[in-house]
Amino acid sequence: MKTQHARNRTTCVSGPASRPDFSRRTFVATLAAATCTPLAAGRAWAQAPALPLDNLGLEHLDILVPDTAASARFYRQVFDTALHEQPFRGSIRYFILLGDLPLDRQVGYIAIGAAGDRPVQIGHYCALAETYDRAGVASALEAAGYPVPAGGFGMIPDVDGIELQLFTLPAGLVTAAVPSDLPVESGGLVRPRGMDHVLLQVRDMERSLAYYRFMYGNGLESADPENPDRIWFELESATRLGLEPAPAGAEPRIARFGIKVAPFDRERVVAGLRAAGADVLAESAGPGRVRFRDNYGITLEVVADSAI
């Protein structure tokens, strides 16, 4: 498992790497045992490709709703955590922290933004990477016929337009966000510990699988034992990105997200969710998982983290 910080890399020259059939993966695996020697004067250092990403897992996502304060109150009734806020484009954007806020502000979160004239939705998800060469990523995507990063926030749309925001460490909670004094009715039902997953509904599974293999690499996929049409990409920090076909006539989207939480009493949490106005979904039966719709119909899960 990779660490949560960028690792230093050393370029080494090893005899087998000169063979035409010697794969890059095999070469990297032999570096630890190889003797590193200075490169000849004037010879360029090898540069790792921009893709696939050396990911560090999912970090945050945002939801778009008509009334950000109403949504923030709902989420604070669910999650026992701090609430932050910032002015943003004529409204207040709220942040549900997915853990304690350290000095470097490196913590996951759910951002709650104003939908305006857009539909209620999960807007984008964010992953971390050890390095992000934006120009290199754009060049690689363009050469492969895929959309390239766009806009001031650097969103990367996939083949269906579903947006990834890519950060490197230290990412940290938005600098302008401060603790919020928005009144809430309770202290929360579960203690969050970070992102668990996001599930995408896509137009063409094969096309999307090819794209996400290109983006994150091969060998990360696993089948969902409960749904033969669903595939998970196992990312770092025990987080996952899921793909499944969009229902007939529906547009591609981020269908739901999951948040890791401390172990909880399911009956108590279900009762508390219903009291807060959530629609608890029957298919999420199980002692360590509850799936529900929030006050605006966005679907999410809380998933007990057995590692806690």
> Hey, roughly how much beta strand do the residues contain?
25-35%
Q: What is the overall number of helices? A: 5
Helix/strand structural class: alpha+beta
Give the proportion of residues in helices. 10-25%
* Oligomeric composition of the shown chains: single chain
Q: What is the CATH class designation?
A: Alpha Beta
- State the end-to-end CA separation: 18 Å
Low-confidence stretches: 1-46
Written as H for each helix and E for each strand, in order along the chain, the element string is HEHEEEEHEEEEHEEEEHEEE
Characterize the largest beta sheet: strand count, sense, and whether it forms a barrel. Answer: 8 strands, mixed
Q: Total strand count, please?
A: 16
Instruction: Give the tally of structural domains.
Output: 1
Kindly provide the radius of gyration, computed on alpha-carbon positions and rounded to a whole number of angstroms. 21 Å
Shape: globular
Q: Architecture, CATH level 2?
A: Roll
Global mean pLDDT? 86
